[in-house]
Amino acid sequence: MGFARTCSVALVGVEGVVVEVQADLEAGVAAFTLVGLPDKSLSESRDRVRAAIVNSEAEWPQRKLTVGLSPASVPKSGSGFDLAVAAAVLGAAERIDPRAIADLVLIGELGLDGRVRPVRGILPAVLAAAEAGYEQVVVPEQTAGEAALVPGVSVLGVRSLRQLIAVLADEPVPEEEPPQAGRPDAMLAGLLVPGAGVGTGLAAESGDGPDLADVAGQHTARTAIEVSAAGGHHLLLSGPPGAGKTMLAERLPTVLPPLTRQESLEVTAVHSVAGILPPGEPLVRRAPYCAPHHSATMQSLVGGGNGLPRPGAVSLAHRGVLFLDEAPEFSGKALDALRQPLESGHVIVARAAGVVRLPARFLMVLAANPCPCGRHTLRGSDCECPSSIIRRYQARLSGPLLDRVDLRVEVEPVTRSDLLGQGGRGETSAVVAERVREARDRAAARLDGTPWRVNSEIPGHELRTRFLAVSGALAAAERDIERGLLTARGLDRVLRVAWTVADLAGHDRPDAQDLALALELRTGIARGVAAPVPAPVPAPVPVPAGAGTGAGEWS
């Protein structure tokens, strides 16, 4: 009889659970039994492992074989257990030393020819192994860079089962034929899920991506974009078609600061599980951008799928931007499902197969037309939408959802002078991003020692008792509360925005001007304050040669 054990990782959402893989050989009729709550793809590993071991020039044990996955109560899915099962079987058959694999974590799928194929979710799996105290992991060679992102873990990337056997048995490691240059590598097929990345993307690392300077005019909307990025405030852009709402939303990620190391690991883990991690880029450093179509279901937004739920759009936009274009066209149930992750920063999805907690701290941008045809607010428009249809269309964005949106901006049609460049060119994303970074640094210094990172996360009680504005600055906000223009939650939102405006302006505390701009961005009512974003400077008018100073002019 022989016995061996090793370890692998089962993923539940984006969190991993270390699973002990045990193999036991007993005298009896040759059979292979796999127990421990495996799913269909994992049950099929019996045939894959047997063929891989035989084709790797190792002997398959002709005895009764039982492989157990413990803890048995944890659902296990996917083909990433193949490598651990094969190692446990070889250890029980004494082809390799069972002590050599007892403290190893092995993750990878086996081909019938013995090659080790990459699987999704390597980063969260290795993170779970490191948190459990394991220091050595074996992964497919193609994902070794992703696994190496976890500090304190020794990573061995193997291309085939033959190489793993040679390393563990202290034998010469055979050379495996690398993929031919210029030809597609079929081994990478398991890393990407077709269609899973539709509507998602990452901000460009270089200057080749969209730039805020491409937007003509829209000074108030540009101010709202800058305030949203600096404080992490949700934003509603409403206006007629063609005014630039989508352009503004697409350029919001370009002014967000780069992700920290911890944030990069969180985003990379979600993208790895979802199968949309860019090939050759194991670490995501820029804020992601997700723009699902308005026909998206509630499950595609918050997470779902057969069996255990998979990350939805809110998780794919974690630490980035979730843009809902034509927001009133989304399902009411789908929009209302966003209320919980907007407040908590995560989404909990309960299904019959289990409960999954997925990260979902994103920056939401809504874009909406004033009516179904979009021409309701245009001067001299020929909008024929009945008033009842307009009210019903605008009511699709529920009050509780809009109450969680800090900034509400009316995007006016672009003027001729702005469109033709006569008003001067707006600031680039790099210039705005620098101001956003400085504002976030001020907020981080002020919030040091607290559980909050940006102004949008500060509770209302703290804003009214601990982080106080300048005396008398709240007079306008108090009048709006009395007139019913602001709710109690709305006042908290205004205070958060005011702190962000103050950070952008370099003020120690919000003053009356900062509160006035915050109220204007919240209620849409002009307060006669100047935007913190400098307006574009018109080109100087050339002076004719020989022109001098006339009588009565200052010299």
From TrEMBL:
Classification via SMART domains: AAA (SM00382)
Which InterPro entries did the record assign?
Answer: AAA+_ATPase, CHLI-like, Mg_chelat-rel, Mg_chelat-rel_C, Mg_chelatse_chII-like_cat_dom, P-loop_NTPase, Ribosomal_Su5_D2-typ_SF, Ribsml_uS5_D2-typ_fold_subgr
Q: Which residues form the AAA+ ATPase domain?
A: 231-415
Family per record: Belongs to the Mg-chelatase subunits D/I family. ComM subfamily.
Q: What is this protein called?
A: YifB family Mg chelatase-like AAA ATPase
| Species of provenance | Streptomyces solicathayae
